[in-house]
Amino acid sequence: MDRALPTKDLPVLQPPFNAQPHTGWQPVSPSVLVLAAGHGRRFARSGGRTHKLDAMLGDVTVLDHVLRSVVASGLPYHIVRPVADGSPPERDGMGHSIARGVAATAEADGWLILPGDLPLVRAQSLVAVAQSLATHAVVVPQCGDHQGHPVGFARICREALLKLQGDTGASAIVRSHRQAGTAHTLLLDDPGIAIDIDTCDDLARAQALLASGAFAQGVGDGKR
User: Which residues pair with 57 in a beta bridge?
Assistant: First the structure.
């Protein structure tokens, strides 16, 4: 399980990025699955000259921004990389990626599914979703009218997650738990949960937002 990165690959965290779980909270410690296996074709078609996760956003890459928040959350994590054995491209789809990540962290208390192209997500949002998993089977974060990531799944969802295939993700599992009344919508004050990088225009917008200072990570939990 990936828990730390070499310092040459990850900028040193400075306050206020050292977000910690609330004092006294210890029910579960889910693993964050950072999905970094996608091909990023839309980004390439929009004019991108590198993989979108390797694109620079400020002085670090898109993926490094995500990993900075993951590390600051204090949660264990695992990065799902592309399959390197010549398997068909669909093996890197979201469904397969989630299943591979869950299989690699099979003893985890639960899982937070976090695409690697959400560079503005806050560490506090990860902690809030993890906390909510103590009392819900599925946790879907939402900011305003926008649902986002990471979506949290308790250990009871393990077998269903392991069966995922292709690029469909885990939406059917979320739907099933909504129908059963065991899914929870967690309202967060964090637009970064829904700002992903699919095109070069998305990257430019994220750069403008980052430069504005609107996405500095504070010490609050981000809940509303």
Answer: 60
Residue 3 identity (one-letter amino acid)? R
And the tokens for 133?
Answer: 């998993």
Rounded CA-CA distance 100/82 in Å is 10
The pTM of this model reads: 0.84
Between CA 97 and CA 91 the distance in angstroms is 7
Give the residues across from 154 on adjacent strands: 110
Q: Before 150, cis peptide (omega within 30)?
A: yes
How would you classify residue 204: left for phi > 0, otherwise alpha for psi between -120 and 50, otherwise beta?
alpha
Structural Rg of the chain based on CA atoms: 16
**Residues near 167 by Cβ (< 8 Å), separated by ≥ 6?**
90, 93, 94, 95
Q: What is the pLDDT of residues 56-96, one digit of tens each?
A: 999 999 999 999 999 999 999 999 999 876 565 556 689 99
65, 192 contact by CB (below 8 A): no
